[in-house]
Amino acid sequence: MKKTIGILGGMGPMATADLFQKIVALTDAAGDNGHIRVYIDSNASIPDRTAAILDGGEDPVPAMADSLRKLELCGADCVIMPCNTAHYFLPRLMERTELPFVNMIGAAAAACRTRFPGKTVGILATRGTLSAELYQRALAAQGVPFLEPDESEREDLMKVIYQGVKAGVPPSRYEKDFRSVIGGMTGRGAECFLLACTELPLAVQALGLELPRVDPTEELAKAAIRFCGYSVRGE
User: Fold this and answer.
1) What is the pLDDT of the chain when averaged over all its residues?
2) What is the pTM of this model?
3) d(CA 19, CA 27)
């Protein structure tokens, strides 16, 4: 029997919309009735995940658990989260539900190994995701060499994410910072990039960048489609 998806969203709202759009676009369906039933709780009031990890900010888990309960009541068969940093809290969320989570981190790391074998992956992420070493561990487990941004590049990435995409400003306002990060990491040996914050695929699209990359949002969408018993378009 075909299954349904619950999106624990709002982290941020545009990233949530991007994930839903990718699920629809990537599902191999001939018409409306061939698509997956999707429940979305886009709670933009969930406290910031990076602040909680690095600065002792408000714990986001109670608000995330509230969304989780709502998705359970809707009848979701699995849960996905369009926020890389939020996966730091995944073990605590899994204790609160019997619903399976489709893990963005694992899906993206596996895609790096498959699509760019032997290449050094530049990890582009929030300070929270980098500090939690979510992707460093996942890539190492897949045998994928990787490069992390240096301190100034981390600061630039936070500007792109928080003062750029999340703030809804024109792409021209954050283009210089983003290109600086890409150029610096390429110069140090990055051969492809992991867009390990769900705002970064939106930035790449807005800027029209041609970049060898893995988009974790896209890989999560594909994994969720397969989990629900549907086919991914083009596969």
Assistant:
1) 97
2) 0.94
3) 12
- The 10 Å CB-count burial string (b at 16+, else e) for 89-119 is bbeebeeebeeebbbbbbbbbbbbbeebeeb
pLDDT tens, residue by residue, 157-166? 999 999 999 9
Q: Looking only at Cα atoms, what is the longest distance across the chain? A: 50
Say what angle helices 13-26 and 200-207 make with each other, to 10 degrees. 80
Catalytic residue (choose from 74, 112, 197, 228): 197
CA dihedral 61, 62, 66, 68 (to 10 degrees): 20
**Beta strands in the chain, from DSSP E residues, in sequence order:** 5-9, 38-42, 78-80, 121-124, 146-147, 192-195, 213-214
Q: How far is Cα 67 from Cα 39, in angstroms, rounded to an integer? A: 11
Strands across the sheet containing 121-124: 146-147, 121-124, 192-195, 213-214
Q: Give dist(CA 140, CA 146) in Å, integer.
A: 8
83 in catalytic set: yes
Phi, psi of 204 (to 5 degrees): -60, -45
| Strand extents, DSSP E, 43-84 | 78-80
State the Cα–Cα distance between residues 34 and 31, nearest whole angstrom.
6
Q: Which of 78, 83, 192, 228 is catalytic?
A: 83
**Could you give the CA distance from residue 40 to residue 20 in angstroms, rounded to a whole number?**
9
Alpha-carbon span 150 to 183, nearest angstrom: 12
Query: CA-to-CA distance for 183 and 180, rounded, in angstroms?
Result: 5
C-alpha distance from residue 40 to each of 11, 72, 75, 81, 86 (Å): 12, 11, 11, 10, 16
Is the model's pLDDT at 1 over the cut of 90? Answer: no
